[in-house]
Amino acid sequence: MAGKGLVNGCGDSLFCPDRSITRAEFIKMTDSALGLPVGEAAAGQAWHVPYIQAAVSAGVHKTSDFNGSWSQPISRQEMARLVVRAVDEKLRQAKTTDPQLVYEATKRGILSGLSGGELGLKESSTRAQATVVIDRMLTLLDGGSLPVDKRAASYAEVAYTGTNVETMWGGNFRQLPFKAKIRNYVNGEFKQILILDMDDKNSPYRSWLPNGTLEQYDWRNPRGIVKTTKDLWKNEYMMAMRIKLSNTQTVKKLNYQFRDMIGAPYFVAALPVSDSRNEGPFATELDFSMSTINSKEVWVFYAIKKEIVERAKKFNGEYFYFETFGNDHYLLYLGSKNGSIFGGNDA
Description:
Blueprint: H1 23-34, H2 49-58, H3 76-87, H4 89-93, H5 98-107, H6 127-141, H7 150-161, H8 165-169, E1 178-183, E2 186-197, E3 225-227, E4 236-247, E5 255-257, H9 258-261, E6 262-263, E7 268-272, E8 287-289, E9 295-305, H10 306-315, E10 321-324, E11 331-333
Antiparallel strand pairs: 1-2, 2-4, 3-7, 4-9, 5-8, 6-10, 7-9, 10-11
Helix pairs in contact: 1-2, 1-3, 1-6, 3-5, 3-6, 5-7
């Protein structure tokens, strides 16, 4: 990178990889990588002013992002904004949000996660990290492709859309959050749908699972999130859904669990057992009381076989839906129009 004139040393021919890089320095690197025309600083102007002006003129930097404190270390969030606009001219003109730009940066492989896949968006970038990001930007501008950190992309996608289904499966659920009837007098607002690969120890959100989830069920010491079939999680994904339930009428002494209210022909229900209901980010109550008018957020869990997902991809299968029981029968689709979340050939 130094040979290309994109990064300067920090004295005595040193690179200082762990030193932070300032906003002005990173914008200069971005301008240089893009080959933007940069004028000379006027008398009395700081050296960075022409670089800032060039980035703003090209649409790579927006003054609404930040417009000062140029000697301040640049954050990973600020770096993501600049670089993703640099590689996609459409994003320079479009109205965007920070979660969108971070997701664009992660799904293209520009931004990787830190330890555990965390994005660390408020953390300052080091000179070494900035150099890696610029190098990745050049790869994309040259028509290349980059490996994607699936955990980082998942976390970014969930922050942007409420689900990581595109990262994990290449599909699309209907836009979250969405509201739907669960059954007569009970409504649900689907807020998040997380996909976990239960065979991949590095799967996003796997660290959220309560202890015992991946072990064989033992009735003498029940723990974890257990499928109703009570067999091991194998060749499956978990779908974890955060749903706000509410009722419009009361029924005395009646409690429902989500799985009792509505079925799922292609999913297998799972539920946290014993003390696992109070453990970690997936802690949840199971019962929803109909005795009073109320609302409650719950996590509900389902298993889906990987072979079903692959078949759905290949044939655009309509497998992603719930179905009510009894006289109030209807279908609750997770796809935008039906139970399909993939494009492709007709089944």
